[in-house]
Fold:
Amino acid sequence: MKTKTSYECEKCQYISPKWIGKCPSCENWNSFKEQDVKISKTPRKIEVKEAQSLSISETTKQERIKTNIEEFDRIMGNGIVPGSLTLLTGEPGIGKSTLTLQIANRIAASKKTLIISGEESVGQIAARAQRLKLNEKNLKAINEFNLESALESIRSEKAEFVIIDSIQVISSMDIQSSAGSINQIRYCTEQIMELAKTKNIPVILIGHVTKEGSLAGPRVLEHLVDTVVHFEGDRFQQFRMLRAAKNRFGSCSEVGIFEMTGEGLKEVKNPSEQFLEGRKKGAIGSCITVAIEGTRPFLVEVQALSSVSPFGYPKRASNGFDLNRLQILVAVLEKHAKLNLQNQDIFINIVGGIKLSEPAADLAVLMAIASSFLKKPIHENSVIFGEVGLSGELRKVSHSDKRNKESQKMGFEKIISSGQFKEISTALQILN
Ligand code: TYD
Ligand code: MG
Structure:
């Protein structure tokens, strides 16, 4: 056996044959530590596995665990696969602990369920469960941040379903670095994964991310786990979306919609109806659009406010819509509709804390701005959607039929889209 020295970055595990001051991968300074790698010179014995036909593979026919919270089961691909590891991420305060408590309570009706929380005491969890009227006998919780004790608890409690809140506060005694460091997070996840796979226990790991998704921990985990689910929305608004970013056992195109209420998270079965609740009909700067998330269409209100800027450099801000896209739309309006927006502050808000990421929302945002600037309301029975091109043309968007159908179902008769108009200049004439 021969040993060879190499250097490993403590932050990102980048390996270099020489010591270097700054890591070329994660750009941290002074993060390299020496390590010895043993190289065996004896010939290795190679085992060859027999390839199997895909049609007889047993793994495809796994029974799934249903929570009967449809919005959750659907995005998981019709329930949770036994032995799977799911990472649930989201900003602090978005409702991860609440959602997992509700899921755990449902599963506890048929399986022994254990919540391992390093963030909250058992008393706090119990108080929340009581407030949400969740009281399954088989639902248990412990306050633990040591990995080895947590794994032992899973074994001794004979848990059949486990939630770990959160992976950032769990740490192992075998790893030197502090809780939340990449080494800890990766090691702990690997250990939990091993237990999950060998004992066939499904586990949900909670991971915090910041607004920019910047906290490195959960990002590192994404390729380790089977399923990654993001809980999105604005913590100060009522609606939340659950989205699968990766799913080894189902499609990634579904979203689940929830509403945060005094009694925890409620499923939103008819999003259009709830998103439009309380809207002021025919208000200036307000426009209804129809978006598609996953396979579901829903109506949502886009609001714009344009007002003369007191400063030389006008402000553009947006909530729920991409800011760069907004800047482009403003430029298109100036150039192709001849609206003088140069001295206007422009603000966009998508009502309810919903994020619109599809280009199909372009036309609605543009029309809302024009409505506010021209002080002319859009007819209250109109639904507007379409992608706007840089030459002021309206482009076709996907699933137009579904969008039209949903609009009609909700009683909106005037549909303004690329089906009716080819240019934004002609579409804008509806404001006259
Ligand atoms: P929580 O699940 O603790 O968020 P996370 O685990 O993602 O950090 O929920 C946080 C917020 O949700 C908190 O600010 C209060 C609010 N909330 C409600 O509005 N209603 C409820 O029934 C519950 C349990 C929480
Ligand atoms: Mg929490």
Q: What stands out?
A: Residues 90, 92-98, 128, 132, 260, 262-264 surround thymidine-5'-diphosphate (ligand 1) (CB under 6 Å). Residues 141 and 214 are 30 Å apart (CA to CA).
